[in-house]
Amino acid sequence: MWDPQQYLTFGDHRSRPFFDLLARIGATEPRSVVDLGCGPGHLTSALAQRWPGARVQALDSSPDMVAAARERGVEASLGAVQDWEPGGDTDVVVCNAVLHWVPEHPALLRQWMRQLPTGAWLAIQVPANFDAPSHRAIHQVAARGEWLDRLGQAGILEPQAVLDPAGYADVLAASGGAVDAWETTYLQRLSGDNPVLGWVAGTALRPVRDVLDDAEWREFTAQLAPLLRTAYPRRADGTTWLPFRRVFAVAQKQ
Ligand SMILES: C[S@@+](CC[C@H](N)C(=O)[O-])C[C@H]1O[C@@H](n2cnc3c(N)ncnc32)[C@H](O)[C@@H]1O
To answer: Measured in angstroms, how far is the CA atom of residue 225 from the centroid of ligand 1?
Structure first.
């Protein structure tokens, strides 16, 4: 399950790519704006501030996230992006840090581009750090005999498919979009004892947490902790640097 509190712990690091994405959307007076996979809704509120005349709606597949978004006053519904379709007045779609959980998302992007009204904007961002030392360490532990069966069956060892900027540009341009795609590696400054473990606990390890009971989870993270400490050493001043690559694509339907 997604945990709104743990997610918001790293709020600044997670918000910056959202605003970098938003900056490339040229819509001026959209009728309807949709935030797909809205999380706790703190960023959805920024969409309402940017376009005060628009109806801003949000969707998330986690009941806890939908509840947290509603508490912020966001018009949020429970649902999967796979089942969502744009309406005739959907002028902006934002999907930030969600589609890496949806392997079939290139087909969804094609479908949404076909269905969106002319002039509408579709903006996505996906983490693209699946070859990073943090993910290699998770896979190394998950592949150990004691975990392999259960985590392998839960799909944790399968590669998560995200495209590079040119891949998204191809998909969106072929579906009728004028495309702007790019990538950025953010160097995130973390502090505390083994903060990369805390970071991945709220993201990449979520499917692991879903499968293990409390005692197993403690054991799994205890095995992972030293690998992450070695891969991301703490500097003398207490800083741990975490490079994080993200891929962005914004398309306007022609
Ligand atoms: C990393 S969070 C991103 C939240 C928000 N977009 C942000 O930028 O802060 C991913 C969110 O996507 C949601 N999610 C994951 N798979 C989903 C799906 N198939 N359909 C809808 N929401 C999904 C999760 O529940 C979670 O709230």
So the answer is: 26
